[in-house]
Design goal:
Helices cover 35% and strands 18% of the residues. The chain is of the alpha/beta class. The protein folds into three domains: 3-152, 3-Layer(aba) Sandwich (Rossmann fold), CATH 3.40.50; 183-317, 3-Layer(aba) Sandwich (Rossmann fold), CATH 3.40.50; 330-494, Thiamin diphosphate (ThDP)-binding fold, Pyr/PP domains (Rossmann fold, 3-Layer(aba) Sandwich). The strands form four sheets. Strands 2-1-3-4-6-5 form a six-stranded parallel beta sheet, sandwiched between helices.
């Protein structure tokens, strides 16, 4: 028996017994003992095994499965630069508290710093990630958040031994989170703000909290909370409206939103309360009047009834004003998609403009499972993440920008066999930068907008994947209603980035004016 074969089998057995059922591998030599052990476990029906040739995409694919299942998912690679490609997904997993298990095969410690082929110090490759440098006899733990297992394999890597090493498995039930909620008593006019990943709490937990509080609630993801205040990031962009609605306190669940207007609004409150388990390990320098690791028992006192009615009225005014302009734009496209996706579906929202447009312009609803890479809000690896998420749902949708799509193009080499529609907003470049201060900088198109001038239809069809293009709201509605089975892309051709920025500014101005008139602030 090869020590490496036995070691790999024991490691895989331990992971299966810890409840890990999905494994993603990228082919390699040093990780061969793990790959063969995993294939044996797959043939016994004990695990799902996914093969991805690009390590960066493999890690994001595993991350997507972890996000969808809230379970530990392992991604395995060989040694050297292959291992380094796991880092972006591990960073996202750390800040989103996802259970991604990165397993890097390694040569024995004695070969480090000797010039041995494909050997580097993999132990400290991922700072701030729980890491184990494993040899036979050393144990490991899998907790919330990402974990790195670096496994030293010595020659010979393989063995002809075929004994039944998978018999007698005992799956350990995951530990339930013990809750010991504290109490919070608040006075005056307050508001709840829910970040996109909800501080890792379930939608149902937060809905119950909001209902018991009877406070207005702003959700960065308005597609999960039907009772949320709609279009808040649009009407709060007006400092006079922010001043009129100045809160005594704000309760923030998770991280704050990407919206500058809402962050400015939160900062205006005299008291702030933050609820997020990650404060104990990740966001350790985050400050507030008081922080909580669990949803507290909330008692609201001295709430002015007009506070509630003001928020409700402003939301109606903003919604009416936004609906007046239905000319073709990115914002109308996003609103159309989010209104038309059927209940019971999963939706992935890309970073940059899509997540901001949905927050500002989508009407609140529920019935969807909404995901995003909001740990660090990067645009890398989004296609791979979407593919991983889609494994867990009967029907999945996603909306991303064209640069986000191009950034992870290699994911199309191994598309999943799932019912998945991906909408790509095509404005030929980084639209978000047209709404930021650098929009007028010299060289803007070259160093910020970065148009790639690619024909997305040809690119996608070149991989043998179904694709169509839409240029109007009616065409987009038809594409949503058609609800194609299998994998399908819809390229959404929208007006120029400059036109988009102009339209956004105009919309915010109209909303601001309407709200001011409605509140007699004009």
């Amino acid at each position: 028996m090869s020590n490496s074969t036995d070691f790999a089998r024991q490691t895989i057995r331990n992971l299966i017994e810890l409840g890990v059922s999905d494994f993603v591998i990228s082919p390699g030599s040093r990780n061969a003992p793990l790959s063969i052990a995993l294939y044996e476990a797959k043939t016994r029906g004990l695990i799902e095994l996914h093969i991805k040739i690009d390590e960066r995409g493999a890690a994001y694919y595993a991350l997507g499965i972890s996000k969808a299942t809230n379970n530990g998912v392992a991604v395995i690679c060989t040694s050297g630069t292959a291992a380094a490609n796991f880092h972006p997904a591990l960073l996202e997993a750390r800040h989103a508290n996802n259970k991604l298990i990165a397993i890097t095969a390694d040569r024995p410690e004695r070969l480090r710093k000797t010039g041995s082929n494909q050997t580097t110090d993999q132990v400290g490759l991922f700072p701030n990630i729980t890491s184990y440098d494993l040899i036979p006899g050393i144990s490991f733990e899998i907790k919330d958040g990402p974990t790195h297992l670096n496994i030293q394999f010595d020659e010979p890597l393989l063995s002809t031994d075929n004994h039944d090493w998978l018999s007698g498995l005992k799956i350990v039930a995951p530990k339930t989170r013990l809750e010991n909620p504290k109490s919070l008593t608040v006075n005056g006019n307050g508001l709840i703000v829910v970040g996109h990943d909800r501080g890792t709490f379930a939608v149902q937990e937060i809905e119950k909290f909001i209902e018991s509080a009877a406070l207005p609630a702003i959700a960065e993801d308005p597609l999960s909370f039907k009772s949320a205040i709609g279009h808040a990031s649009a009407f709060l962009s007006d400092e006079f409206v922010r001043g009129y609605l100045k809160p005594d306190y704000v309760i923030v669940i998770g991280r704050t939103t990407l919206s500058r207007s809402i962050n400015s609004y939160i900062a205006s409150a005299e008291y702030s309360y933050v609820i997020d388990p990650r404060i104990s390990l990740i966001d350790t320098k985050r400050t507030a009047t008081q922080v909580f690791f669990e949803l507290p028992k909330l008692e609201v006192q001295i709430l002015n009834p007009s506070w509630i009615s003001d928020w409700q009225e402003i939301t109606k005014i903003a919604a009416t004003e936004i609906s007046k302009d239905q000319s073709w734009s990115e914002q109308v496209a996003l609103s159309t998609i989010t209104a038309g996706i059927p209940d019971g579906s999963a939706l992935f929202v890309g970073s940059s403009r899509p997540i901001r447009d949905i927050e500002a312009f989508a009407r609140p609803r529920n019935g969807l499972e909404v995901f995003a890479n909001r740990g660090l809000a990067g645009i890398d690896g989004n296609l791979s993440t979407i593919f991983g998420i889609a494994n867990g749902f009967e029907r999945t949708f996603a909306v991303i920008g064209d640069l986000t799509f191009l950034h992870d193009l290699t994911a199309l080499l191994t598309p999943p066999d799932v019912n998945l529609t991906i909408f790509v907003i095509d404005n030929n470049g980084g639209g978000i930068f047209s709404t930021l201060p650098q929009a007028g900088a010299d060289g803007f198109e070259d160093i910020f907008a970065t148009p790639q001038n690619q024909d997305l239809i040809k690119l996608i069809s070149g991989f043998g994947i179904s694709v169509s293009k839409v240029k109007t709201t009616s065409d987009l509605n038809l594409a949503i209603a058609h609800n194609k089975s299998g994998l399908h892309f819809v390229v959404i051709e929208v007006p120029t980035r400059a036109k988009m920025a102009e339209n956004l500014a105009s919309t915010y101005t109209r909303v601001s004016s309407a709200v001011r008139i409605g509140l007699n602030l004009a």
